[in-house]
Amino acid sequence: MDLGQRQATLHDAEARLAHAEVGVKTADGRLEAAEQLLTTVRHRAAWLTDELHTAELRFADLSGRRAAIRERLQTEWRKSLEDLMETAAPLDADDESLRAEATGLREQLDALGQVNPLAIEEHEEEQKRLELLVSQRADLASAKLSLEQAIREIDTTARDLFLATFVQVRENFRKIFMTLFGGGECDLRLENPDSPLDGDIEIHAAPKGKRTQRIHLLSSGERALVALSLLFGIFLTKPSPFCLLDEVDAPLDDANIGRFVRMLNEFKSNTQFIVITHNPRTTTEAADAVYGVTMQEPGVSSLVSVHLRGSAVEDAITGSLSVSEPLAALSV
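Structure (tokenized):
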């Protein structure tokens, strides 16, 4: 083979080599483009996978919320979602206004705070209690009116009885006063004649030779006689079977003691008197029996009784009893 052919062969090989290099470069470009496309596809596939996962999560959340809404509707309305959708009335408002209204209602609910699920039952219980209290209040008001009417009737009856008794005691007081003091003037006066049950009773007395004045301005003996006059005046109005007098004759002089003894003798036929006294005149002139306490030995008290009047004493005086019998009747 000559040089020309070899050169032609070399040129041909170089041409094919250049053509092959161009093919390699073209294949490299296509490979790079394919790799870029593959990378883009992979990125899109990853994004789609994320979107699918997000969609699945949202679907699960919406499914849970839908189930919760179904249960809530079933609990509160006792109806299923399908039944409510069938009976729901169509609204002319658009979605935006409905969403705004729903947002406002939610805000109002949030402002109300936590909802008490037992509020309805508690309201019913409180309503029943209110009805009971209203009924009891009506009963109390009726009872109050009845009590007020009874009080008015009792006050009227008590006022009439008091005034009638007061008039009788007043007259008897005047008579006894005149007897004990041998004259003079006395009176019982109501502090508040318009309301006699609520006011005090004033005692005015004027012994013979003195002007009328209130009882606290009298001497102790005069006050004692005035008190006895009132006591016996009450006895004349409503006699009592029993009366205890504790040293009422202590401030009295001899003349007034005599008047006091006469009053005791006049009243003792209807009333039993127990008189505690240190005055021997009261004992001897008015008492039917005398009981004394003596201490013959230090620290030892003994009771001694003496009957001054009675059938045993009268028989002893007339001599119908033996000497020993009256002694037994007169001593214990």
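The radius of gyration is 63 Å. The chain is about 65% helix and 10% strand.
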